[in-house]
Amino acid sequence: MAYQFPQILYSYDRLEPFIDAKTLELHHLGQHQHYTERLNDLMERFSALATKPLEETVADIRTVPQRVRQEFRNLAGAHLNHSLLWRVIGPPKDQGPSGGLLTAITARFKGFDRFRNAFEQVALERFGSGWAWLCLDHHGVLEIASTPNEDSPIMLGLNPILGLDLWEHAYYLQYHRARHAYVHAWWHVVDWGQVDQLYHLRRESVPFRS
Ligand code: MN
Questions:
Q1: If you ran DSSP here, which 8-state letter would residue 190 be given?
Q2: How far does the centroid of ligand 1 lie from the alpha carbon of residue 186, in Å?
Q3: 160-to-1, 15, 23, 30 alpha-carbon distances in Å
Q4: Which parts of the chain have pLDDT scores under 50?
Q5: Interatomic CA distance for residues 13 and 34, integer angstroms
Q6: Which residues surround ligand 1, an ion (CB under 5 A)?
Q7: φ and ψ of 41, to 5 deg
Q8: Which of 91, 187, 189, 198 would disulfide-bridge 14, Cβ 3.0–4.6 Å?
Q9: What angle, 0 to 180 degrees and rounded to 10, lies between the N-to-C axes of helices 179-186 and 112-125?
């Protein structure tokens, strides 16, 4: 089964001025398409990897034969991470979270502003390439996390509902070394309606790993 490269349903300039059109196009068409093609190529060569959902294999990465484990880790993580990313960002609406998600964020982090500060701090502490995440743990409790490279938080037993790409390909063309400016601007393109949907969906789903 070939993994699908998800389309973006708006033009590449719709995240401006926060993420410019060239950066988004290179990231989506350049990076993600390339990762997906390489993942599909790997799955063709090692068809045993394709017998269960990608998330399940990623959750138990030690079951992957060692000779392809690192390649699978990178490519499956990259495909899952970017598929989530395109879902949770979109044209700016400048809305924060609402409803059950806002209640949960407020309860867990003592308010939305404090959550945002804590998330930004984790993002800025990531040295080199990686991601910052808002996840649900096995008990449905919200956790901020960070992973290096293209590791998925699913590898840590966490279910991601929001992800911030900290690779230089995500911002360098526009922001150069100013990762903090990118991280700060990025909140404008978070689609909280989608994050809220994922929050409710993942709370009800069985965790990938116990
Ligand atoms: Mn990326």
A1: B
A2: 14
A3: 24, 22, 24, 24
A4: 209-210
A5: 21
A6: 165, 167
A7: -65, -45
A8: 91
A9: 150
Could you give all domains of the chain from N- to C-terminal order, each with its CATH number? 20-210 (3.55.40.20)
SS3 178: coil
- Give the pLDDT confidence score for residue 207 in this predicted structure: 55
Query: How much distance in Å is there from the Cα of 131 to the middle of ligand 1?
Result: 9
Query: How many CA within 13 A on the CB side of residue 179?
Result: 19
Report residue 171 as tokens.
């911002």
Q: In 3-state terms, what secondary structure has residue 49?
A: helix
How much is the pLDDT for 205?
73
Residues paired with residue 165 on neighbouring β-strands, in sequence order: 131
Question: How far is CA 35 from each of CA 38, 39, 95, 161, 183, rounded to the nearest angstrom?
Answer: 5, 6, 31, 21, 23
Cα-to-centroid distance, 149 and ligand 1 (Å)? 10
Strand extents, DSSP E, 118-195: 130-136, 142-148, 159-165
**Cβ distance 85 to 8 under 8 Å?**
no
Distance 133 CA to ligand 1 centre (A): 14
107 CA distance to ligand 1 middle (Å): 31
The predicted pLDDT at position 208 comes to 58
Whether the CB-CB separation of 46 and 68 falls below 8 Å is answered with yes
Q: How far is the CA of 20 from the centre of ligand 1 (A)?
A: 14
Strand order through the sheet with 159-165? 142-148, 130-136, 159-165
Using one digit for the tens of pLDDT, what is the confidence trace for 21-36?
A: 999 999 999 999 999 9
